[in-house]
Write a structure and sequence with these properties.
258 residues, 60s Ribosomal Protein L30, Chain: A, Alpha/beta knot, 4-stranded mixed sheet, elongated
């Protein structure tokens, strides 16, 4: 099998754009994910994989063999330098996949539990929230306008495959979305909320989390029926939004264990 060696190749240019440009991902309804774990997670989920890509060194790695077998077709072989060209990591894994972004619809009226993200701008935080949500069986997430792209490589890496078990809606009008949610809306507050250990957490929870700096805006927080606070003994003013979300999801799930 001959390898692609030109950075000017149309496929190579496409993958570089998907790795770096939100507009390209949205227009192509595609994303690029890298690494054996994510590639295998995508293949196992049944999500459409448009291309499996391996580098010359990557094809020799034993941990990539299962993905190549699962794919069932010949992967696209590229030179190591070409793989480095479109990879967005400092140490490229040598295996990647172009996937089709699912056209999912979140049925807010029937959702058993949902996350609403307002202006969360760090894709790593979005990925961490998705990973925690999947761990506690939350399937729906709605990203408002101004959030980072949930399908960026950084978000995909942080989520560790959570994307493939969730329904994700983005670029949403959050005021409208929370109004259509069929359960109880909650948001976190640094100090003035009910301590989460004492709060009466509903079965159908819609968690609202805000931007890393200022939190949830007053207008959106006003729509929450319950504000919860995570008590802290240290000097920090607040928790990272990803850490706060994980604590909320854990406490909610703990209450419902048989």
């Amino acid at each position: 099998m001959s390898a692609l060696t030109s950075r000017q190749n149309k496929l190579v240019q496409r993958w570089r754009a998907l790795a770096r440009d939100t507009k390209a991902r949205k227009s192509e309804h595609a994303a690029l994910l890298e690494g054996a774990h994510l590639v295998n997670a995508a293949l196992s989920s049944g999500i459409p994989v448009r291309s499996l890509i391996v580098s010359q060194k990557g094809q020799e790695k034993p941990e990539h063999a299962s993905a190549m077998r699962h794919y069932g077709k010949a992967p696209v072989l590229v030179s190591d330098s070409v793989f480095e060209f479109f990879s967005d990591t400092e140490t490229p894994a040598g295996i990647a996949a172009e996937i089709e972004i699912p056209k999912t619809r979140v049925d807010l009226g029937a959702s058993a539990g949902c996350i609403f993200l307002e202006s969360v701008q760090d894709p790593a935080n979005i990925g961490a929230i998705l990973r925690s949500a999947a761990a506690f069986a939350i399937q729906d997430v709605v990203l408002g306008r101004g959030c980072a792209d949930a399908w960026s490589p950084k978000a995909l890496r942080a989520a560790m495959g959570a994307h493939f078990s969730m329904r994700i809606a983005d670029d949403a009008d959050l005021a409208d979305a929370v109004g259509r949610f069929g359960g109880t809306l909650l948001c976190t507050a640094p100090r003035e909320g009910t301590p989460i250990g004492q709060a009466d957490l509903p079965a159908r929870a819609g968690w609202i989390f805000g931007t890393e700096g200022r939190g949830v805006t007053k207008a959106l927080a006003a729509k929450a029926e319950l504000k919860v606070t995570i008590p802290m003994a240290g000097l920090a003013e607040s928790l990272n939004v990803g850490a706060a979300a994980a604590i909320c999801f854990y406490e909610h799930a703990r209450r419902r264990k048989p």
